[in-house]
Write a sequence for this structure.
């Protein structure tokens, strides 16, 4: 009796173990792992042979758009998801940052449409444009639907300035998926760069995208640590006048984080918000007449800047020639800075902390010539 | 002749302008005391922020407010009398647009001479003059007041379209310079630019003295004026030239400012109730200055909560006033 009972118990245990094993196996398949670390508006989840992409609204961080890439042909597409066929073979990239990200994955050859060639730096894309293999579409929101249809692009990536792409549903039915890219709304520089992972899953280069991101993350954090060791905190202000209003990066913004990571005393670091703060010119002068450095004046030469507003001459930073700008090659900056935040940080540290003797070359920023 | 009541109004305006000017000087976001004001004028310390703000920011801004307000109002008065149309003005007739178009050409050409102050002023003056001549030519063909205004509006639309094309073709730095200029501002002007602005402004105002008599006669109608020995062709050319100088000058330094030239002369006519252009001009000088200074004070007072460009505020106030005039005429 006891033997029989033991056998039964053993059988029961085996059954439980085997069932548990099955559960473990199936839950491993079900694992929902968001691969994103810094980007607040993007989720990439691997689930049951699918890659689920969630684009979140930058306003409330609620999921706004859901896309699904099938890694296995027989996987079930969850309801509410738009199917994306990967690897994508042709892309309309309406922002220069998109071209920058694709170029890091050596895939800028996939670009078949751009908004305006005047804002493109990438030589390969420009060359293709000159040969007529890349089409100029125009500004987001003004692009004729028929041009998009004629381009036969698999995906159109747009910046979504507060609204969906016009005729998004019709275009989807005609074979072009419109994918919104909120990289520009990311607050952390690494969050901005992390959107390369979206391009990675789109073009079938996920591993390369992850490798690249991990590499730049390591470099960025290393540079931040180096800067933190400095005993000085140079003062700086940023931005310029537009009409009568001076726009400076707000305290929780992308630029403010860069300034903080470069260990600087940014004048408006305590201001609220992730966008910009507005001031009158008088206020800016009062606050910054003695500030040591001025970044991002929006011009590439001192004469041009003073032509736009000769009263800038009162700033100590202008008198001491400590004004720095990325506008020497604006297109290059916009194309690469989002995906090379470590180089932006490196430039800032190099300029603001000469005592750290970084000895890196300047990638984007230059001093404005007198 | 002007009534005693109207004279009193003029005296009152004459007292108001300096009072509002002082208020304007002290209405910025940063509070500056009288001692800094005194030192900024007579014992300037280049290292004192408050004094710099006073001398380099507020004084040029005040002077430009007075010049722009009065200059545009006078230009509007000239246009209204010349075309015998109370709804005429440099902005609505497309004369400002002419200036804008030529400034756009000069800035976006990238040629250093045209980007200089002198180049910008020259372009604005030439643009205003050419567009003044165009509208004058149309006035010979089109007799209806409304049609002429429509042609002016169309000229404005035409130039806007042309400027948009130029913008799409220009490089980002030139585009930025033009965009900054086009936003319109009284604080672009520096103290060193004031003398050259004053020279052109005084030239324009002095020229007005010589056309007072023809303007008074023109009110009676073109035929009457010709019978009284007015050489219409020359008078019109002089009026267009003065308007071009005043409008071009102000547009070059402040960007386009709408409705001042249209609304203020009508306000002055309502206040003074006279057709004597000598008095109307003095009225335009005073009311125009007051109008733009009050607008600028409002902008500065609201600055902590909302930033309004000068062009937007003058339109907000001027446009309803123009609608009122139209309704009054219909009634």
């Amino acid at each position: 009796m006891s033997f029989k009972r033991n056998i039964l118990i053993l059988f029961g245990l085996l059954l439980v173990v085997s069932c548990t094993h099955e559960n473990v196996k199936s839950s491993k398949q079900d694992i929902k792992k968001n691969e994103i670390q810094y980007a607040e508006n993007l989720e990439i989840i691997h689930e049951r042979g699918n890659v689920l992409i969630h684009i979140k609204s930058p306003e409330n961080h609620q999921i706004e758009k859901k896309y699904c890439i099938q890694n296995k042909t027989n996987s079930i597409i969850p309801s509410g998801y738009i199917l994306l066929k990967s690897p994508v073979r042709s892309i309309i990239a309406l922002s220069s940052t998109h071209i920058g990200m694709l170029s890091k994955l050596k895939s800028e050859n996939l670009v078949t449409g751009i908004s305006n060639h005047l804002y493109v730096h990438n030589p390969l894309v420009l060359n293709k444009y000159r040969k007529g293999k890349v089409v100029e579409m125009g500004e987001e929101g003004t692009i004729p639907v028929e041009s998009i249809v004629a381009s036969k692009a698999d995906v159109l990536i747009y910046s979504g300035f507060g609204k969906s792409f016009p005729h998004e549903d019709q275009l989807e039915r005609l074979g072009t998926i419109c994918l919104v890219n909120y990289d520009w709304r990311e607050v952390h520089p690494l969050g901005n760069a992390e959107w390369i992972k979206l391009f990675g899953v789109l073009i079938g280069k996920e591993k390369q995208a992850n490798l690249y991101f991990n590499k730049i993350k390591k470099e960025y954090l290393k540079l931040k640590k180096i800067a933190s060791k400095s005993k000085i905190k140079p003062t700086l202000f940023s931005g310029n006048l537009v009409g009568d209003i001076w726009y400076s990066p707000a305290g929780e913004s992308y630029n403010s984080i860069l300034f903080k990571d470069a260990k600087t005393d940014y004048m408006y670091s305590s201001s609220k918000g992730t966008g910009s703060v507005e001031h009158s010119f008088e206020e800016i002068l009062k606050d910054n007449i003695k500030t040591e450095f001025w970044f991002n004046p929006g011009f590439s030469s001192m004469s041009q800047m003073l032509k736009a507003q000769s009263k800038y001459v009162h700033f100590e930073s202008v008198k001491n020639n400590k004004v720095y700008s990325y506008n020497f090659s604006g297109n290059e900056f916009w194309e690469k800075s989002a995906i090379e935040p470590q180089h932006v940080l490196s430039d800032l540290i190099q300029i603001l902390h000469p005592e750290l003797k970084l000895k890196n070359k300047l990638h984007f920023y230059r001093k404005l010539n007198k | 002749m002007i009534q005693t009541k109207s004279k009193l109004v003029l005296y009152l305006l004459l007292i108001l302008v300096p009072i509002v000017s002082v208020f304007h000087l002290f209405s910025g976001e940063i509070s500056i005391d009288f001692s800094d004001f005194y030192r900024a004028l007579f014992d300037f310390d280049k290292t004192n922020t408050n004094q710099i703000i006073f001398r380099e920011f507020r004084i040029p801004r005040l002077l430009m407010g007075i010049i722009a307000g009065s200059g545009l109002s006078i230009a509007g008065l000239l246009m209204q009398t010349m075309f015998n149309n109370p709804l005429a003005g440099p902005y609505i007739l497309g004369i400002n647009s002419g200036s804008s178009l030529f400034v756009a050409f000069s800035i976006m050409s990238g040629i250093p001479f045209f980007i200089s102050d002198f180049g910008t002023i020259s372009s604005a003056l030439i643009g205003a003059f050419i567009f003044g001549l165009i509208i004058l030519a149309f006035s010979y063909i089109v007799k209806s007041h409304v049609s002429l205004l429509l042609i002016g509006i169309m000229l404005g639309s035409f130039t806007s379209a042309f400027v948009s094309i130029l913008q799409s073709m220009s490089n980002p730095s030139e585009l930025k310079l033009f965009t900054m200029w086009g936003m319109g501002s009284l604080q672009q002007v520096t103290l060193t630019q004031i003398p050259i602005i004053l020279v052109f402004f005084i030239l324009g105002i002095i020229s007005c003295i010589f056309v007072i008599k023809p303007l008074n006669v023109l009110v009676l109608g073109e035929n009457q004026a010709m019978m009284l020995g007015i050489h219409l062709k020359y008078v019109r050319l002089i009026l267009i030239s003065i308007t071009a100088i005043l409008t071009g000058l102000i547009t070059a330094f402040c960007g386009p400012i709408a409705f001042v030239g249209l609304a203020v002369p009508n306000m002055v006519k309502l206040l003074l109730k006279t057709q004597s252009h000598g008095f109307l001009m003095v009225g335009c000088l005073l009311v125009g200055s007051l109008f733009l200074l009050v607008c600028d004070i409002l902008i500065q007072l609201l600055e902590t909560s909302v930033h309004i460009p000068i062009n937007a505020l003058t339109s907000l106030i001027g446009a309803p006033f123009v609608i009122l005039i139209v309704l009054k005429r219909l009634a």
